[in-house]
């Protein structure tokens, strides 16, 4: 469903994404991990057709993101790092506006707006102006717009940032419930979030792929012989530390998924 091949993005003399290659199968939920500045948001912006790459290719649902960005945008729901929610609009007006931008059939819009609002728990604030909502509610509104039209692929950049613990649990449950039908790639700095919501983990550092595997595969590879269960979150911190703490220069990109 997502195929990234040798993707590179340079901002002047900074290489933010450096020869990244990976694939995500239909219905998989993949966690995207990496330190600040590793290139996660840049990769997500390229995948969603919002940013051109310097070189390499990216395909979503069989469409090239550079050659057919509209086909890609139609099939992708994107929650950017800072959702561009319009502070003067009510939640309902904003979601309707987003539905129109996504070119949903007019007759489907009210029902679809109600559906995503209920799924993200913003149905109680539909007539409130977004500027007056708490950060957590704004984040939910961002998530609601990503779900509009029931897209095959969801790209979520730090979906639980700004939420309170209860909301975080709800959003994680929501993300888990999307698995199977939707292909999800989500970035986060919260390691337990990955263990709770994702089947596979993609780790990047300095723009390069460091590892890409299932949680079980990572445990086998990096903590051999250790008995850990997926309820035991600390294992992921240990593996992550091994992967991103000062890998030898040039070696990071050599690890294959
Ligand atoms: N528009 C831009 N112009 C110049 N440099 C940029 C731009 N956007 C991102 N960068 C740089 O590219 C690198 C990768 O940034 P990116 O936001 O993709 O990382 P990230 O992994 O998402 O980080 P974080 O976890 O902090 O969100 C960083 O060094 C960042 O400063």
From TrEMBL:
Record has Transport as a keyword: yes
Similarity-based family: Belongs to the ABC transporter superfamily.
Keyword ATP-binding included in the entry's annotation: yes
Annotated source species: Anaeromyxobacter paludicola
Record domain ABC transporter: where: 2-231
Family annotation (Pfam families): ABC_tran
InterPro entries, per database record: AAA+_ATPase (IPR003593), ABC_transporter-like_ATP-bd (IPR003439), P-loop_NTPase (IPR027417)
Keywords noted in UniProt: ATP-binding, Nucleotide-binding, Transport
Protein name: ABC transporter domain-containing protein
């Amino acid at each position: 469903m997502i195929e990234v091949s040798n993707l590179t993005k340079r901002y002047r003399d900074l290489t933010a994404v450096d020869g990244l290659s990976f694939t995500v199968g239909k219905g998989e939920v993949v966690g995207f991990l990496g330190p600040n500045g590793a290139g996660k948001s840049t990769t997500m912006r390229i995948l969603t057709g919002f940013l051109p790459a310097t070189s390499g290719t990216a395909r979503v649902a069989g469409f090239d993101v550079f050659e057919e960005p509209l086909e890609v945008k139609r099939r992708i729901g994107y929650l950017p790092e800072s959702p561009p929610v319009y502070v003067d609009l009510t939640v309902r007006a904003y979601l309707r506006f987003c539905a129109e931008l996504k070119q949903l059939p007019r007759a489907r819009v009210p029902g679809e707006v109600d559906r995503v609002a209920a799924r993200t728990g913003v149905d109680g604030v539909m007539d409130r102006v977004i500027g007056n909502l708490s950060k957590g509610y704004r984040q939910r509104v961002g998530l609601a717009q990503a779900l509009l039209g029931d897209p095959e692929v969801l790209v979520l950049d730090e979906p639980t940032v700004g939420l309170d613990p209860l909301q975080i649990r709800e959003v994680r449950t929501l993300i888990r419930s999307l698995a199977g039908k939707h292909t999800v790639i989500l970035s986060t700095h919260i390691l337990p979030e990955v263990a709770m919501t994702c089947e596979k983990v993609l780790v990047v550092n300095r723009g390069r792929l460091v590892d890409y595997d299932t949680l079980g595969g990572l445990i086998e590879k990096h903590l051999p012989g250790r008995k850990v269960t997926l309820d035991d979150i600390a294992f992921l911190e240990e593996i992550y530390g091994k992967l991103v703490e000062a890998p030898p220069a040039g070696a990071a990109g050599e690890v294959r998924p």
